[in-house]
Inverse folding.
């Protein structure tokens, strides 16, 4: 993910979703008797995360958290997925090396996730021109002024491109819901629900309505 001065929830929430469906954590939940799958092999391999900064200098985020990049665009390993959180679109301008990094990632047909105003950062690279996009709803009027070539909408909580390569969500909580939906669409609803005992998130659909769970967990086993 890109290291920007975003709200930490933008990135921490989706990362927690991915961590919660790993073989390691599903194995733990099986031991506790609260796992939907009974075989840890259903989970994904433990993910390797790269925190990409324009330099290796620490970056201060909202709430005075300090993030330390682990790599830069010129030496970052090939990525399967890229997550872009949302800085203040009025005061922050994406550095040129991160602009080129996003363009290259999208051009290779790799999946990109944006949360909150992260989609406005992505829009600044030109890769959303002619596409429908979502940002935090209160910023839609500003987004339309700044990036008029993008079809900005506020009628749902996330948007997925026709080819499934761009996943763009509204505010931080919507980013968590979007990532859960990505897990459901990419793997299965069973795997998506398997991590819920760890995060204890109540997943919502694209319009913010609670998602009906097919595999509810009986926590009375822990009494």
């Amino acid at each position: 993910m890109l290291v920007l001065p975003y709200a930490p929830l933008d990135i921490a929430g989706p990362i927690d979703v991915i961590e919660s469906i790993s073989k390691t954590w599903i194995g733990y939940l099986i031991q506790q008797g609260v796992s939907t799958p009974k075989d840890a092999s259903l989970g994904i391999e433990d993910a390797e995360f790269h925190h990409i900064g324009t330099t290796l200098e620490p970056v201060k985020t909202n709430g005075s958290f300090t993030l330390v990049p682990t790599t830069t665009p010129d030496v970052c390993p090939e990525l399967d997925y890229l997550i872009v959180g949302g800085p203040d679109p009025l005061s922050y301008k994406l550095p040129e090396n991160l602009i080129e990094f996003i363009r290259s990632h999208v051009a290779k047909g790799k999946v990109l996730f944006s949360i909150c105003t992260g989609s406005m950062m992505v829009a600044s690279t030109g890769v959303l021109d002619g596409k429908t996009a979502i940002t935090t709803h209160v910023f839609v009027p500003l987004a339309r002024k700044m990036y008029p070539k993008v079809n900005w909408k506020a009628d749902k909580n996330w948007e997925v491109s026709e080819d499934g390569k761009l996943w763009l969500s509204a505010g931080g909580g919507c980013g968590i819901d979007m990532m859960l939906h990505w897990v459901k669409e990419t793997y299965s609803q069973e795997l998506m629900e398997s991590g819920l005992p760890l995060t204890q998130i109540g997943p919502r659909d694209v319009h913010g309505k609670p998602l009906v769970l097919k595999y509810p967990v009986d926590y009375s086993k822990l009494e």
Q: What stands out?
A: Strands lie at 59-60, 66-67, 81-84, 111-114, 132-134, 151-153, 158-160, 166-169. The two ends are 39 Å apart (CA to CA). The helical segments are 8-20, 23-32, 96-107, 118-123, 140-146, 172-186, 189-194, 196-199.
